[in-house]
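Bench log, entry 3. Co-assembly request; chain sequences pasted below exactly as received.
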Amino acid sequence: MAISSLVWPCLFQYIGTVPRLVTRCQRKTRSIWNRTATLSRIEKKATEPLEALLFLPSLQWNISNIAKRNLHTSQFHLQEVMLTCERYRVERLPFARISDSDLTFFEHLLPGRVITDAEELKPFNVDWLKSVRGCSTVLLKPRTTMEVSQILKYCNEKNLAVNPQGGNTGLVGGSVPVFDEIILSTGLMNQIISFDHISGILICQAGCILENLNQYLEPKGFVMPLDLGAKGSCHIGGNVATNAGGLRLLRYGSLRGTVLGLEVVLADGSILNCLASLRKDNTGYDLKQLFIGSEGTLGMVTAVSILCPRKPNAVNLAFLACPSFSQVLRTFITCKDMLGEILSAYEFMDDGCMKLVERHLKLTNPVTESPFYVLIETSGSNSTHDEEKLSHFLEHVMGSDLVVDGTLASEGKKIKALWALRERITEALTCDGVVYKYDISLPVEKLYDLVTDMKVRLDTAAKNVVGYGHLGDGNLHLNVTAESYSHSLLDAIEPYVYEWVSQYYGSISAEHGLGFKKKHYIHYSKPKEAILLMQQFKVMLDPKGILNPYKTLPSKAEQ
Amino acid sequence: MAISSLVWPCLFQYIGTVPRLVTRCQRKTRSIWNRTATLSRIEKKATEPLEALLFLPSLQWNISNIAKRNLHTSQFHLQEVMLTCERYRVERLPFARISDSDLTFFEHLLPGRVITDAEELKPFNVDWLKSVRGCSTVLLKPRTTMEVSQILKYCNEKNLAVNPQGGNTGLVGGSVPVFDEIILSTGLMNQIISFDHISGILICQAGCILENLNQYLEPKGFVMPLDLGAKGSCHIGGNVATNAGGLRLLRYGSLRGTVLGLEVVLADGSILNCLASLRKDNTGYDLKQLFIGSEGTLGMVTAVSILCPRKPNAVNLAFLACPSFSQVLRTFITCKDMLGEILSAYEFMDDGCMKLVERHLKLTNPVTESPFYVLIETSGSNSTHDEEKLSHFLEHVMGSDLVVDGTLASEGKKIKALWALRERITEALTCDGVVYKYDISLPVEKLYDLVTDMKVRLDTAAKNVVGYGHLGDGNLHLNVTAESYSHSLLDAIEPYVYEWVSQYYGSISAEHGLGFKKKHYIHYSKPKEAILLMQQFKVMLDPKGILNPYKTLPSKAEQ
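Structure output for the full assembly:
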């Protein structure tokens, strides 16, 4: 994947967090920011808290690239990222501070796998978005579950806080320390334990990179049941810990269904082996579910058992123009009926999005200009059948009032070009000015009402208010652009947008989790009884609170 | 469904529990047992503890029918079912006993919906299998969540034990009281709250009967994502509380994926509203998962939000003969490849099963006699495509060494006849003599090894050792028949069979749960760390232990 596709959409996470950040990209500034010389300017900006909130996406992209290239050199410094504890004014909890005897213990346990060099540690202290930065002085690289167990047992006894870390691709500040938590990396836990080519069940260590797993499976005729922009870096353990969604959710469901078993090390070092590879097992409570999506706050996932679907033999795409959102919904119903089991994506975008990709990226609208567009993907075992189904469907919807125009693709280049119209919206948005972005779940029939409502509410205060997203999953990306950042515009959007979502029992974080930056907004999506229960689970499983502190749940004092 | 299809398979639950029961059916005795006059004999047998363990299935069937017909009359007495507390020698926990003031409170809260008449209470005190019987003196029928909340708040304060009850179709003694627990029925909580015809999300109260929900959905072009033999009686709340599996699991996955939200009342009466109808929501821990499959021991499910798939337009069936189990497995792989997304069932049976249905039920083997048979069902949106796929698949496997013969069905009568070969195995088994039955999950490649192993181990001590089941779900039904009940044969099977399953990380209860009768066997499928954690959850959520006591988990003293 292009890094941009990961970085751009991530930025919206800043909006609505504390503090709220916005993105901006002036096309004319791109060439400037591409120069290494801009680094001094980055550093200057970062020392100014207010300006630091106004991140330029193209700058972000460069930093990411540079940081990646210079990961283990001392030539590149990340001083431009303010320390989280300073920017967010967080109070350090009374954990012990790491001592020489602690280091001696770790070095004895993991010879050569205890990183204390300040330069080496830098990229592990900073998140992908360069928005939060911890000041950990130790990174541990266990290879086995037993080592993780011994580390956590020791840390729990010594009251040392721990930050579990996978590929560090999280978007809500959940994967890096806030203070000096010990970083416990799954980087070396990258072994595939077994694959059953009959059942399609893969068992592997938590540190396996998603893309590597896919590459391992594809020659065997299987694929991972999830696919993400960050697949080249993210670890399967991190995917599970954050309940990652992604592009295949409509077809294969969430990790709650596909993850069959987990091995987890608890805060006190005890190993919970629920690594069964069974589709049916009703012997007691399903403990693994509690760890899926717990963002490393309840235990550290060390191994995963996951059900992998067969690799589809054929993929087809249709791009359609719809006269209204009501027609988008009716087309979705027809689509589910006529395409049924081969439907693998149903994405929508409004005309505002199309205008942005045309204007800023010079992409061409392949169909008649319309208020809405729909992208439908099918994945199946028989290309002839799938194409026939799509053609019949297309004939039907175009013969009715649902769709005014459409085009079909079944070969790589055209498929890619059609997907680009949808996938590059975020990129086009950043070229339109300052972007206020929201990633929310809503009941599907309410999905676009929020956009319409926001257009009326903001009126001329916004440059553009557009909506697109995974309609099939009830996942809307609401975007507001403006010429420049304005507190009054932000105040007009928030907390109105969260209240709106809350009113329809929607989710203020569809798939990215709460991490450090969204934990204070949980009450918009969860009742207080649920939050209280979550806090009780946390206390029960991690009484000293050493696992990924300051994340996911607000403390009782913060509520 | 025929009641027999529910009762016969249930009986195996007795094997391996305390005490272990066995089934026996001599065809010649059927006519005798069908006479009402046999009731006196039933009563006589039931007073004799040892004989009571030896249930006759045909007798069971009659009792079920009679009990159902006379549910609210005083003409039929259920004295033949021993009290659980006597048969299993359980110690009553120190809960309060219900008083007149308690009854006054309930009558005030639920006017006319407090049942205390002994005759009326009988069927709610006894399980479907007539194997366990409580002695509750009160049944409460709330209509609303608020009423459930008030009941539980009161019971928790007064230390009164409660037995949540849905359709009372559970097979492990989980749905009826052990002593005098108050029965809290979902019987009147049968309202559909909403159905979204775009997303297919249904929200309803816990007491809706599964079949009624299906009948509500079918005209709308949808089906429930689960289907069970007990669908005519079971409640969706009970399905969720027991994580029911059933016939559609291979295609639509488990309830852990399809249940999107729950409303649960906790032991202290607090209402946990996690009834969201969202496919994506990562705001904190997924609490609902803990209640799915917790068998009413952690909270009472009062409402369910569930994702319903489209009703398939076409259903096809293939019945194939395979020369070995290895070929059964290879056919499964080919099947997943060539049928892919339309595959909805992959069942297998060995030659022993076929001989039993031929001999005892006079069914005809439609294909060449072989060591193994496979039944494949497809469900799809386009009948022509589905038939083509199945034909191509059949040509391929019959052209190779995988399959020696096969037949295809796409119309109702022939489909039913082919399904009967697989569905009526349990019935045929009961006509073969005493049956020792086991319902287990195993890694799919190990599935038949247990049967082979058991054949060698038991040799002539057994009349028949056969295996069949849901290969696609890794779910094996192992069955051993003998001319008469023998402790030595049972001892040769158990605990060997559980140890065997445990060795391959299998499950000793694939889908029926642990309830009252299997809770002592949990350690064969779950490590002690997991059991300990489950006990901690129980204590945290229900400190007084009032919710469905004596069920699911062994107490620490019992371990």
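The longest strand of chain A covers residues 314-322. Chain A touches chain B through 95 residues (CB under 8 Å).
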